[in-house]
């Protein structure tokens, strides 16, 4: 979302809470690495960019601080939280616990429409692998994993996953800046093979094998990011 899109949303939602729109604006820029880790957030500068007062900006930044996407120390300017291998490793451990169990139950509950959705996403992922800049792999991979979690049928598992999925998406975007494109392409191609394996296992209802494949897949991704 750029400044023009922001102004359009303000006009489309004249009775909306301005702080929520500012939050969405900053949230998207942080997640997609349009604002890099460590960058300071200046209320006056953002207010000037968006043509609004500083109060809704302050409210939006406070929400981002609560979500630990933005950090603030004493009286210093708030800044974008860093992206670290240590954080990624801990996050991946949480993903393994949540997603492997979600996949286990998804294999028992998944329906034909969800399987078709996964096949569509896997095909899109394959197509992205052939592009020179790999644009879009982050959201496509996110949607694939989110679809499996949602298919588990357990609202508590889904809620647990939703508490970290936006952080995981941020790290996916970070991979593009951290890893050379030609090497990232090879990583994504291997990830694609795992996606198709998961679809096959889900279609056959093989719960234990789905669980194991998810654990293996996430273990590999954990080690790749930690290396870089």
Automatic annotation (TrEMBL):
Presence of the UniProt keyword Transcription regulation in the record: yes
GO MF: DNA binding; DNA-binding transcription factor activity
Keywords: DNA-binding, Transcription, Transcription regulation
Gene3D superfamilies named among the record's database cross-references: GntR ligand-binding domain-like, Winged helix-like DNA-binding domain superfamily/Winged helix DNA-binding domain
Domain of life: Bacteria
Domain HTH gntR-type, residue spans: 16-83
InterPro entries (alphabetical): GntR_C (IPR011711), TF_FadR/GntR_C (IPR008920), Tscrpt_reg_HTH_GntR (IPR000524), WH-like_DNA-bd_sf (IPR036388), WH_DNA-bd_sf (IPR036390)
A Pfam family this chain is assigned to: FCD
PANTHER family: GNTR FAMILY REGULATORY PROTEIN, TRANSCRIPTIONAL REGULATOR, GNTR FAMILY
The protein, known as: HTH gntR-type domain-containing protein
